[in-house]
């Protein structure tokens, strides 16, 4: 199919290859040669530069300095692809950041290895990270994802991470906050403080920290005369959350001395730039209250357990937490629902003559 751009000239060389040149706007006698063809992602950028009269600069392939078909060579190409996926919304920036760091670390040890490295070598490297099992498993996960991407594009034939198991048995994840923890935090950080608003926001929305940094009055809606919060969680695969805005949260948001784009603001009255910034701040607030080893996700867990204790079903908790799979919320209700079913069943025997 012929490509039509103003001033673009397609020329067939004696070799049979096509060459593309552009006449700068206002100077039809001049032709500037492009370094790439229309199927290249930089084509439009080079065309616009040439159309403006600037000679396109040949972009060096970052992977050109690495050994072809090596782990480092693939990691660089995958990194470029991840940047594109972030721009198109196919990958979260936090995922890109973690995988980049993991793969750079892996390349320091095995960057010169060929792509057909044996799985035994990957297991050997994973075991060297056994002191931090969570990081070790994330490393394998990042490598597995890179090779899945490469195999789909014909860059590799075998995924060395396939079949490599996890070593992190887990300790139940984040530690849930207790009622005493919540009271201690609120005693140290009274109403009107950002810390108090932060705890209240987590407690009465069960949101993730990636959503807490962006929630604000723009997410408030009226549904059947009830003020509610409505947002689409950042985490990929999460369902939209629509929940009533409870009075304690409403009061806390209105007690804030500064009104901004988001509910939670820094000491400078600006939204937190990243979830990590709020995470560090919350850790500082917890330390000031004498609470150590607690996190925002622990508040989310505490909310799930409290909802379950108050009789909420697994599916009700799903709607509040934004889960799309029942098994994710089952952790909060499994034991309690079995007890309720048993209790209801045993009531059937109360009137039995024995």
UniProtKB/TrEMBL annotation:
Organism from which the protein derives: Thalassovita litoralis
Stated name of the protein: Phage integrase family protein
PANTHER family: PHAGE INTEGRASE-RELATED
Pfam families reported in the protein's UniProt record: Phage_integrase
Keywords: DNA integration, DNA recombination, DNA-binding
Protein's GO biological process: DNA integration; DNA recombination
Keyword Ribosomal protein: no
Domain Tyr recombinase: 172-346
This protein's record includes keyword DNA-binding: yes
A molecular-function term among this protein's GO annotations: DNA binding
Superkingdom to which the source organism belongs: Bacteria
Family matches, as PROSITE patterns: TYR_RECOMBINASE
């Amino acid at each position: 199919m012929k490509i039509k751009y103003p001033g673009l000239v397609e020329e067939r060389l004696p070799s049979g290859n096509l060459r593309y040149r552009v006449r700068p706007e206002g100077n039809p006698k001049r032709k500037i040669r492009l370094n790439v063809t229309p199927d290249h992602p930089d084509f439009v950028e080079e065309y616009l530069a040439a159309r403006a009269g600037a000679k396109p600069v040949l972009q060096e392939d970052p992977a050109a300095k690495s050994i072809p078909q090596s782990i480092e060579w693939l990691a660089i190409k995958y990194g470029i692809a991840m940047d594109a996926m972030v721009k198109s919304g196919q990958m979260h920036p936090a995922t890109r950041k973690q995988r980049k760091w993991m793969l750079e670390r892996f390349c320091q040890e095995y960057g010169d290895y060929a792509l057909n490295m044996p799985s035994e070598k990957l297991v050997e490297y994973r075991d060297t990270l056994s002191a931090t099992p969570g990081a070790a498993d994330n490393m394998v996960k990042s490598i597995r994802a890179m090779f899945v991407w490469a195999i789909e594009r014909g860059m590799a034939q075998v995924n060395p991470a396939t079949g490599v198991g996890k070593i992190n048995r887990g300790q139940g994840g984040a530690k849930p906050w207790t009622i005493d923890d919540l009271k201690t935090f609120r005693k140290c950080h009274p109403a009107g403080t950002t810390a108090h608003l932060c705890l209240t926001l987590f407690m009465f929305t069960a949101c993730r920290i990636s959503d807490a940094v962006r929630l604000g009055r723009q997410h408030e809606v009226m549904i059947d005369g009830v003020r509610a919060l409505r947002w689409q969680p950042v985490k990929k695969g999460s369902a939209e959350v629509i929940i009533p805005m409870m009075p304690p949260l409403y009061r806390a948001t209105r007690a804030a001395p500064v009104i901004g784009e988001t509910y939670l603001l820094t000491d400078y009255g600006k939204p937190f730039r990243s979830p990590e910034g709020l995470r560090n701040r919350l850790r500082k607030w917890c330390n000031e209250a004498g609470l150590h080893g607690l996190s925002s996700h622990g508040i989310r867990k505490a909310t799930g357990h409290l909802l379950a204790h108050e009789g909420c079903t697994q599916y009700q908790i799903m709607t509040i937490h934004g889960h799309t799979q029942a098994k994710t919320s089952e952790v909060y209700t499994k034991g309690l629902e079995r007890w309720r079913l048993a209790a209801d069943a045993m009531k059937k025997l109360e009137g039995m003559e024995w």
